[in-house]
Amino acid sequence: MSQADVLRALDARAAGQWGLVTTAQAKLDGVQGVQLLRLERSGALESVGHGVYRLAASPPPEHLRIKVAWLRLDPGTPARDRRADGPRSGVVSHYSACAVHGLGGRPQDPVELTVSSRRTTRDETVVLHRARTNAEDITVVDGLPVTTVPRTVVDLLEVRADAARAGTFVAEAAARGLMRVDELAPRVAAFAGAYGLPAEASGAELLHVLCERAGRSLPVRKAGRPAAKAAGTKAAPNPERKRPTIWEVAERAGVSHQTVSRFLKNDSGMKPATRARIERAVTELDYRPNLMARSMRTQQSHRITIVLPELSGFVPIPLLRGASSAAHEAGYMTDVVGLEGGESRRARSVLSLLETRQADGVLSLVPLGDLAGDRDSGRLPVVVLGEYDDNLQSQGRLADGRPAEEILRHLSDQGHRRFLHVAGSQDWASARNRRAVYVEAVERLGLDSYGVVDGDWSVRSGYEAARDLPADSGVTAVLAANDYVALGVLRGFQDRGVRVPEEMSVFGWDDEEFTRYFSPSISTVHINKEEVGRRSMLSLLALLRGEPEPTSEVTNLFHLVPRGSSGPVPR
Question: Is 51:68 a contact under the CB 8 Å cutoff?
């Protein structure tokens, strides 16, 4: 089977499961592990978990870790053929369900799945819960079977989740109309005692207390019981009672309706006394914002689109993770799209997304011409990152080569004097900058360079550089253009019988995940791309809110991470 045939087979498999394919699924099409490894080395595939690959031409899916863990439950069965109640399948649950629902989940949490039969996993980043999940407790979000919001709350309380985190989830779900408190309350009443409430406390009281511990309000009566008439008889429920308005809340709290609106948007600058008055009025009136009416009135989608070029072979996942996290914290869902064509064509596509209300704002990783103009001129809700060119090649801050000098200083402090640099493709500004700084720093620090090998970012280029280095070169340390090149250098020396780091030190760049697990672990340069993405998204959010633009400068963007592949000069 040719490489083109293999890619077509993998693409067909990955089409219905977020651009991902498992080794077990590939074998069904006659694709062997060595073929997958070759494609990974060529950059066509990216290993995203044990036995799971992502096609590099596909945009990275949201909640990648969760989707990978779910696929690994039954790796031989395509996602479209999986049943949520199947013997080897499972359901996304607990804090992972929070994250998928976009309700207070933390990306750094372990992936949590609920399975119906006893299962074990060696993956320390995955937690399997064993429980029965009924069909009415399962929903599908972006192709993933996920516990419904009410079932997720029950699961969290059953495992004694942190009260503040559970309260944040409940408050956000109620505010977005994703659950009815009166229907959920009976299901959680049994957990009241576990959270310090009297045994006779109602489920509604428990939910209210959880929200209070999170510093949030729940738009329900605190006691969760119907009010009584003065004569002592119960008031008959009035299903026709008019929904209270924001003006009624404002009147009862003694503030303006604009102040109530700020409260509902969780304005952190509000005085505590004012917040308390509004919260009391909201509770007493059982006020619930009409989110559907608001959406129709404002024509907001509550979605933000992140733009990549079409079919990019490189995707900055940490940057996307930081941007998506900031958007989710602000109540937005994110869509990652690849737009074909040059700047002007991409700009037209972005305008179409905004005009058709498919997105409230756009964060573009690639240029869009002058679409994102002067911020003060009432421009469109578009922010261009400015750190990549049309082909997602680094420029600006991310292409800074100065850490190369830090690496030389670090290694020279350990006695190294003669170096080799295996460069990246000189079509990239980052590769040119790293090479230039290396050459200048060697001379400035009084060190010696055996030379620079022209590479192409690939494992192969690093392997060949190490293989062809003369035994009498005197080189004791190699600076690789990136971690993949460093991996090739390490393997090349290992095949020659050169011990790393005892006889040769190797330093990479980018802090790819695999560098921590290779033997020896690879010394590298960490780039805080996640914070770059986060700051960029915060700029877009400020633009959407009409607020001053926050600083986008990231301090300590780079730092060295010495590991097992580097050490003192050989004696």
Answer: no
Query: Residue 139: beta bridge partners?
Result: 146
Give the pLDDT of residue 105. Answer: 55
Angle CA(410)–CA(413)–CA(414) in degrees, nearest 5?
Answer: 95
What is the DSSP secondary-structure string of 226-266? PPBPTTSPBPPP-TTPPPPPHHHHHHHHTS-HHHHHHHHTT
Whole-structure pTM over 0.70, yes or no?
no
Helices (H), 428-480: 429-444, 459-468
pLDDT tens digits, one per residue of 249-271: 888 888 887 787 777 665 657 78
| pLDDT tens digits along 125-156 | 888 998 888 888 888 888 889 999 999 999 99
Residue 234 phi, psi dihedral angles, 5° rounding: -70, 140
- Which 8-state DSSP code applies to residue 394? B
CA trace torsion 201, 205, 207, 209 (10° rounding): -100
Cis bond leading into 501, ω under 30°? yes
What is the per-residue burial (b if ≥16 Cβ within 10 Å, else e) of 201-229?
Answer: bbbbbbbbbbbbbbebbbbbbbebeeeee
Distance separating alpha carbons of residues 456 and 427, to the nearest angstrom: 9
3-class SS letters over 5-26: HHHHHHHHHHCCCCCEEEHHHH
Nearest by Cα to 18 from 51, 62, 48, 50: 62
Asked if 206 and 192 touch (Cβ cutoff 8 Å), the reply is yes
H helices of 301-387, in order, are 317-329, 343-355
Helix (H) or strand (E) run with residue 141 in it: strand 138-141
